[in-house]
Amino acid sequence: xxxxxxxxxxxxxxxxxxxxxxxxxxxxxxxxxxxxxxxxxxxxxxxxxxxxxxxxxxxxxxxxxxxxxxxxxxxxxxxxxxxxxxxxxxxxxxxxxxxxxxxxxxxxxxxxxxxxxxxxxxxxxxxxxxxxxxxxxxxxxxxxxxxxxxxxxxxxxxxxxxxxxxxxxxxxxxxxxxxxxxxxxxxxxxxxxxxxxxxxxxxxxxxxxxxxxxxxxx
Length: 218
Fold this sequence. Notes:
Number of domains: 1
Strand content: 15-25%
Number of strands: 7
Largest sheet: 7 strands, antiparallel
Number of helices: 3
Radius of gyration: 17 Å
Shape: globular
């Protein structure tokens, strides 16, 4: 049986990393230093916390998660379009617990001058939460083949606010903070992955890369 207090503690610590990031961004602090502090905090959780996505043997070998170099062009302002068809998708987590998520909005932005869009979903589990998975042209050679997440508010990861703008109009998407789902690290995890509508044909060379322990070949 999982230790629910450990799980709660992990989510609190993870959420605090995102709150500190938002504070630093709104305060205009150096973007690379803010990112480096965030990475150090996340590496600490992976290395030492009992609710780490890594198993015990992986934690013994772990040094740090691999990321693309910080790319300021991959921090973009997205227009939030909620005037969409709110379709519901079923995600089979395992045989006993299927999960549904409902399309909540479509985000429109540009990547290196090319217009693209991604759907944000509402996870239909107790309490609910916003979820943004995506897959891009770096998969599977450079990043996890199943795609990555930009935020999952149930688990404490979040998007960035824009000072003076309502969150239902515009939000800030910083793909330098894109991260792998837990199933990228070992087979004990089953994760909801990106639906076909969130598979981008552009390369997002920012955020977390394929996972490998020291000496392993991806």
